[in-house]
Amino acid sequence: MDEGMDTELVIRAQHGDREAFTRLAGMLTARLLGISHRILRDIDLAEDATQQSLVTIWQRLPQLRDPARFEAWAHRLLVRACYAEGQRARRWASGAGLTPGREPVTVDELGWIIDRDELDRAFRRLSFDHRTVVVLRHYAHLSLEELAATLKIPVGTAASRLHYALRELRSAVQADARPVQERATP
Amino acid sequence: MSNRTDEFTEVLEVWLQEGRSQEDPERVLDRALARVDATPQSRFGWLSRVFAFTGGAARLTFSAATVVAVAVIGLALVSSRTWLGGPGPGTSPPPSQPSPTPSGPANILGLPPEGAVPSDPSLGQLVLRFASNDIPPGITMWVYADGRVIWSPFLSTPAGVGDAFTGLVEQRLTADGVAALLSQVGSTGLFEDDLVLARDSSGGFFEVDLRSGDRFVRVARYWGGLGVGAPRATDQQEAAIQSILDLFNDRSSWPASGWQDQALSAYVPSSYVVCFGVRPRDAAPGHWTGPVEPAEVWALLPEAAQDLLGAGEPVTDTGAMHADGGCTRVTTDAARALARSFEGSAVQRSRPQSRYFVGYVLSNPTPAWGEIWIQFGPVLPDGVATWLGGG
Fold it and tell me: SS in 3 state form for A60-124?
């Protein structure tokens, strides 16, 4: 649990204390929005999913057995809200991406240019589950154990899901990108 | 190789950090808190769930189903005068047992087939509920302000209702028909206030809930159990109860002008409530853990089921459904997809031949849990699920 996310605040919110919940939500929202934005790749969908997850967190707080697990539980509800929002909108494939730009992010040692659009296209091709593990691990920086706890899956499953997600993402980027030499050749 | 992976990951993480300028968490927080102000917390404790049924349709359907279940089991075991159609003297012939409709690969027995049109509109105001097993084989009927009359013919399949029938049928009254029915019931003089009466000989139960403003007035008569301590019905009250029984027993006597559509059609719900419970491995059948974090259960189901349940809406008013673990509401399409996701998995249909009961069991899912049960209940227009587990 985050340092600021103290258990007492969670317990107070569980008992219906709106002020405690407002403080908790204030600490959480930016993080939840960041995660949902990256999973859904659409700021409007992300706002809706985050908003819904905050309402669901409030509604279901009394059912949370272990307040110390609040953050993982909140992330889990967010992931569900993202899934529902994505299903509802069905706009993943055509929605607006993040910051547009053609400049390359980097050039790796094999000479593959990876630009933002390529990464964005490749990421959009991932399944919802794969997007989720990539974002939770490489954006939210959850450990594998935290990732597994959040998704309620075994650690081994989390590790393999992440492995396959990255492999698929990398393959998609490579399929999309062309070697520097090819690009340089008219 | 590891360098390549590391570099790719590094690029990925840089890319994932982008886009923050589009994010306005304050706006999202403000909107969410505005909704929170109008949203009660749901408290899933078993006792709070039971005692939450203090009024309204939830209490009505819950108690009705409980009584029906008790009556079915008790009468079937103890008495020859059973409305299940036992061979005792004085009983009606046993209702016809439905033969399962051959279902195509896309259909799930007990759920409306693909393409079945849900009852319209999806929501309606309940104005009267009648339930009794004094009319063999027993009947529960819900009447809505928009004219819909939905009822459960228990174990029998009325002719002509079609393949979409899954235990409930629908007819439609006109607005005048609804008003006349309510007036006739109300004019018995029984509905001044809630009234529980006892009958002094064994027999069925009788319950009527009649809307009065924003609440229901219940008149009930029980033998044994629920009737213990209640006053015995006077002759006048017995006569009034009998007149209501006659009214509902002979619906053909209702004026033709009161019907908008008297033909029976299958009631197709817009949504289902899916409830689950967990039995610890060392617990006796019927003993459950009580509330369980839904995600703990869903994680043990096929992935497609997890997604469907995750996209559902948590339900606090569980109506007549057994809700030991918790309940979630899904669309009828999602309910069908959920049932389909169980096919070929370790999640087994409880009564594969039942047209009325859609339930599943997953045996020994964890070292601690002996069983997870999952049951589907059709949601009525008043938004509350009912339970058709009798057949």
Answer: HHHHCCCHHHHHHHHHHHHHHHHHHHHHHHCCCCCCCCCCCCCCEEEECCCCEEEEHHHHHHHHH
Q: Is the pLDDT of residue A169 over 90?
A: no
Kindly state whether B291 is in contact with chain A, defined as any CB-CB distance less than 8 angstroms: yes
The C-alpha atoms of residue B210 and residue B226 are separated, in whole angstroms, by 20
Selected residue of A138, A162, A167 to mutate for chain B interface (largest B Cβ count, 10 A): A138
- Per-residue model confidence as pLDDT tens digits over B219-233: 998 765 566 678 888
DSSP string, B150-204: EEE-TT---TT--TT-SS-EEEEE-HHHHHHHHHHHHTTS-TTS-EEEE-SSS--
B49: burial class by Cβ within 10 Å (0-12, 13-18, 19+)?
buried
Interface of A with B in 150-179 (CB under 8 A): 152-153, 166, 169-170, 173
Q: Label residues A7-35 b or e (16+ Cβ within 10 Å = b).
A: eebbebbbeeeeebbbbbbebbbbbbbbb
Question: Which chain B residues are closer than 8 Å to A21 by Cβ?
Answer: 36
Q: How far apart are CA B79 and CA B202, in angstroms?
A: 9
**How far apart are alpha carbons A31 and A25 in whole angstroms?**
10
Q: Which residues, 6+ apart, have CB-to-CB distance to B172 below 8 Å?
A: B147, B148, B149, B259, B260, B261
* Residues of chain B below pLDDT 70: 1-6, 42-106, 136-137, 154-156, 200-204, 223-228, 283-291, 319-320, 322-324, 388-391
**Contact with chain B for residue A106, Cβ under 8 A:** yes
- To test the contact with chain B by mutation, choose from A51, A87, A130, A162 the residue with the greatest count of B C-beta atoms within 10 A, namely A51
Sign of the alpha-carbon dihedral angle for B68, B73, B78, B83: positive
Contact by Cβ (8 Å): B269, B119: yes
For strands B206-212 and B169-173, give the pairing: unpaired
DSSP state letters, B248-294? HH-GGGS-GGGEEEEEEEE---SEEEEEEEEEETTSPTT-------H
Lowest mean pLDDT of A14-18, A24-28, B180-184, B250-254, name the range: A14-18
Residues 6+ apart with CB under 8 A from B371: B278, B279, B361, B362, B363, B364, B365
Whether B233 and B245 have beta carbons less than 8 Å apart is answered as: no
Query: Which of A32-46, A153-167, B96-110, B116-130 is the least confident region?
Result: B96-110
Q: Find out whether A58 and B36 touch, Cβ atoms under 8 Å.
A: yes
